Amino acid sequence: RTLDSLGSLTGKRVLVRCDLNVPLKDGVITDDGRVRASLATINALVTQGARVILLSHLGRPDGAPDPQYSLEPVALRLSELLGKPVAFAGDTVGVSARETVDSLADGDVALLENLRFNAAETSKNEDERASFAAQLAEFGDAFVSDGFGVVHRKQASVYELASALPSAAGLLIAAELDVLEKLTENPARPYTVVLGGSKVSDKLGVIGHLLPKVDTLLIGGGMLFTFLAAQGFRVGGSLLESDQIDTVKGYLAEAKERGIRIVLPTDVVVASKFGADAEHTITSAESIEETPFGQTGLGLDIGPETGAEFARIIAESKTVFWNGPMGVFELAPFAEGTRAVAEALTRVDGLGVVGGGDSAAAVRALGFSDDQFGHISTGGGASLEFLEGKRLPGLEVLGW
Ligand code: 3PG
């Protein structure tokens, strides 16, 4: 169900679930990509004269108000980008939200406070979620689901709310699916997936499902050390999920059997500590504990030899999907692996997709512009689960 299916929305109160989960540092947005990606739908509704009520989560607060996760800075940024005021409600279903919604005129925009300040949003209990969704639904005449980054979550504002009001997918979701379907339906080959990032156990689960679909899998980021450990290498103080080593061994065996390449780093950057001022050195993947930092050395990036090899494989691919930075790109000494992958992705002769908030933030922080890539997806976990072929609750409920 697309936006048009809702008919005329002039004068109607339209709840829009966005994914405005942006990175913040000291209250300042460090990458506003998700805010900008939300503008198309918001503008389309404003132009129609709808009363637009935006909903989002930010981070993972504990189900109670927590000022460090307030969406207020996002309301300010939205207002700058839209060129009009965005009213901000200091709660989600309380007095402030009610007053804010009631004060809207046709074409006005409001943002309610972080949905995850209410524990019912992410509750495992369906009834709790449904009753929170029913409270939200009182503020609207229609619902537009446009937070692509969160469609893999069965949460009140993503799933139950869509059944509580006439609902449709927004323009961002439609645009994301247009591109991602190209990756699932007959991708041009060779098809390479590059995985990195720090949410290690999340990503490890994905690999089993992706293996049968791709030609080559490149492994960087935090999870690479679990792969190295599975090969019997010692990884010093690097991130390691010991309980996943057997699973990873299974993936390596399966890949071998199926003739799929899993390419692991041959060198890494090892540091004395976690920090931009850490001493660091490049070493081979087998000798992480043989640097001057011994058993406490931390692997914080793939090494230059690996970066060059990954870049070569990416440049020779016709379809590439990349999720997750190769190293701690926020710290200059550990950004080169991510830069090498990003740079190669801009040269793909085919479709090169950057997936996820962190990877998108990384390429922008490293000075690349969005138009250098085939597509930058706003969804990390969501795009990966889509590529795995999983049914995503937030799409299923809309009939997609
Ligand atoms: C994301 O950053 O991937 C989305 O905003 C979803 O956030 P979550 O992983 O905290 O549900």
TrEMBL record:
SUPFAM superfamilies: Phosphoglycerate kinase
Pathway terms, separated by semicolons: Carbohydrate degradation; glycolysis; pyruvate from D-glyceraldehyde 3-phosphate: step 2/5
Entry's Gene Ontology cellular component terms: cytosol
Protein name: Phosphoglycerate kinase
Gene3D superfamilies: Phosphoglycerate kinase, N-terminal domain
Binding site for (2R)-3-phosphoglycerate: 34, 116, 153
HAMAP family in alphabetical order: Phosphoglyc_kinase
Reaction catalysed by this enzyme: (2R)-3-phosphoglycerate + ATP = (2R)-3-phospho-glyceroyl phosphate + ADP
Enzyme class: transferase
Positions with a binding annotation for substrate: 19-21, 34, 57-60, 116, 153
Domain of life: Bacteria
Species this chain originates from: Agreia pratensis
Location(s) in or outside the cell: Cytoplasm
Alphabetized Pfam families for the sequence: PGK (PF00162)
MF terms in GO: ADP binding; ATP binding; phosphoglycerate kinase activity
Residues that hold ATP according to the record: 203, 299, 330, 356-359
